[in-house]
Amino acid sequence: MKLTHILPLLTLATATAVSAAPESFDFKDPKGVNNAVFSLDAPLESVNGSASGISGTVLFDPENPGATTGKIVVAAESMTVPNPMQKEHLHGANWLDVAKYPEISFEAKSLANVKTEADVTSAEVTGTFTLHGVAKDITVPVKLTYMKDKLSARVPSLKGDLLVLRASFSINREDFNIQKGQYEDKVSPTINLTLSIAGAAVK
Amino acid sequence: MKRILRILALLVWLAGATIWVATGANCGWTKTSVPVKTLDTVTGIEGITYQDKFLPGVDFLGAALAGAGLLAGASFFFRKAKANQPQQNQP
Question: Does A196 sit within 8 Å of B50, measured CB to CB?
Answer without folding.
Answer: no
